[in-house]
Write a structure and sequence with these properties.
heterodimer, A: MetI-like fold, B: alpha/beta, D-Maltodextrin-Binding Protein, domain 2, 2 domains, ten-stranded mixed beta sheet, two-stranded antiparallel ribbon, globular, MetI-like (chain A), membrane (chain A), transmembrane (chain A), Tungstate transport system permease protein (chain A)
């Protein structure tokens, strides 16, 4: 299909000649999804660590709920946030609907369960290895959580990337709460949806390639930031 | 210390994103997709903004959703194309006043193979009846949009209940005009679309306009400022400025000036005082 070759050359041309519109869209995508990932990590990592070491009634039920929420449909999250932020909704007075902040809120809700559930699994496994040591040192729960989070930081980086990947790739939530407003709330995925609906499939695909390239760059950068000792040794 | 730095950077991200939207002289328009997808706003809005300094932000959704959003007070101006629903919106107090703005028309597009043999017909009802009789595929918006409402009215006039063929020859996509065109063209079915979206649509493949020219396929657009009595946050002055400019001689001329490949997409018909 010639659409693919057309899309590839178009994607290349887009990146090289760019134009401020593309950079603005890419920039907003990054800003919103990285913002959501940061907030989701700030909420989800402590929650994951807490559930990993705590034993209480109903814990299994909580685990099931946390794991199930990883499958939250973006469009439902968008709708729920819309109903809250709408001028006729309870938080309408904040005037946040159709702003990047609303998009950060929606994506944060979408990926916090992912961060919490995945980090819980990582940290629980880690805790199994260290539990006796922690007990012999008589550490307080907060200290245990801190030690686990620090020790598992490399695995948790991947957890964060999973959350970011989900956020930057979703379209349903940002479309509803952002409104895909040109030069204000248009991000990569809503731009792709728009070009598809205009029937400009090569441009839509080219934007998709740019988004994919962006994900590659970010994951590559994170990989490069890891200390050499953490990389597998090649023999 | 790490935590505080982390929190500062999170706050920075949020602060930056929050700051980007602070614009006092901006209004929000809930609009039908055809006016946005066809590029009309890209042509009109810079002219208006240059004249008044008012920034216009457009949310383009189906007419049904646009009206619903405006009823939730999430708009300053409503610009859609479903006259009965618009009049109801005003009658219920959500809008101050509805004004005819411009028109174009709906067309039925179909594949070259023309399985129902309707190409060249000018009677929309007869053409639809023929499509139903032949059991030829028809892709419907199915999303309560202005185009969907018009399509249902045409089926009713044709004496056909397409719901009986739902999932069979009658395929309701439940999505926007562009997505429905993509789907209809993908499956080789007929599609009712407004002419502006069709002219500006890039994925036509072997499709052409099969049925056009019926007065029943007239497509009227209207503009309505949202009523501040229902929605106190509405920026009524700027909203009224925008509506007034659109129907002014200057705005109407700007609408008429917009063409793609030499074809005019919208025909201004606001009442001139």
């Amino acid at each position: 299909m010639h659409t693919f070759t057309e899309a590839f050359s178009l994607a290349l041309a887009l990146i090289l000649t760019g134009g401020s519109d593309l950079y603005q869209i890419v920039g907003l995508s990054l800003q919103v999804s990285l913002g959501a990932t940061l907030v989701a990590c700030a909420l989800g990592l402590p929650l994951g660590a807490l559930v990993a070491i705590a034993r209480f009634r109903g814990r299994n039920l909580l685990l099931i709920v946390m794991n199930a929420l990883m499958g939250l449909p973006p469009v439902v999250v968008g709708l729920l946030v819309y109903l809250q932020l709408s001028r006729s909704g309870p938080l309408g007075f904040l005037g946040l609907l159709y702003t990047p902040t609303a998009m950060v809120i929606a994506q944060t809700i979408l990926i916090t369960p992912i961060i919490a559930a995945l980090s819980r699994q990582v940290l629980e496994d880690l805790h199994g290895e260290y539990a006796e040591q922690f007990r012999s040192l008589c550490l307080r729960p907060a200290q245990v959580m801190g030690a686990l989070l620090w020790d598992g930081r490399h695995a948790l980086l991947t957890v964060g990337l999973a959350g970011f990947g989900r956020a930057v790739a979703e379209v349903g939530a940002v479309m509803i709460v952002g409104g895909n407003i040109d030069h204000l709330t248009r991000v990569m995925t809503t731009a792709i949806a728009l070009e598809t609906s205009k029937g400009d499939l090569p441009l839509a695909l080219a934007l998709g390639l740019v988004l994919l390239g962006l994900a590659l760059v970010i994951n590559g950068a994170v990989q490069a930031l890891r200390p050499a000792a953490q990389r597998p040794v090649h023999v | 210390m790490l935590t505080s730095r982390f929190l500062t950077s999170s706050a920075l991200v949020l602060g930056l994103t929050g700051g980007a939207m602070a614009q006092d002289t901006s209004i929000l328009v809930q609009s039908t997709t055809s006016t946005a997808n066809s590029g009309l706003y890209d042509h009109l809005l810079p002219l208006f903004t240059e004249k008044t300094g008012i920034q216009v932000n457009v949310v383009a959704v189906g007419t049904g959703q646009a009206i619903q959003n405006a009823q939730n007070c999430d708009a300053d101006v409503l610009l859609v194309h479903a006259k009965p629903a618009e009049e109801k919106f005003v009658a219920e107090g959500y809008g101050t006043q509805r004004t005819d703005l411009m028109y174009n028309d709906f067309v039925v597009v179909g594949p070259e193979a023309d399985p129902a043999g309707v190409t060249g017909m000018t009677d929309a009802e007869a053409a639809l009846a023929k499509i139903a009789e032949a059991g030829a595929l028809f892709a419907s918006r199915g999303d309560d949009s202005g185009t969907h409402k018009k399509e249902l009215a045409l089926w009713q006039a044709a004496g056909v209940d397409p719901a009986t063929g739902s999932g069979d020859w009658y395929r309701e996509t439940g999505s926007g005009m562009g997505a429905t065109l993509n789907a209809g063209i993908g499956m080789g079915g007929y599609v009712l679309t407004d002419r502006a979206t069709w002219i500006s649509f890039d994925n036509k493949q072997d499709y052409t306009i099969a049925v056009e020219g019926d007065t029943d396929m007239f497509n009227q657009y209207g503009v309505i400022p949202v009523n501040p009595e229902k929605c106190p946050e509405v920026k009524i002055e700027a909203a009224q400025d925008f509506a007034d400019w659109l129907v002014s001689a200057e705005g109407q001329a700007a609408i008429a000036d917009y063409t793609i490949d030499g074809q005019q997409l919208f025909f201004p018909n606001a009442p001139q005082s």
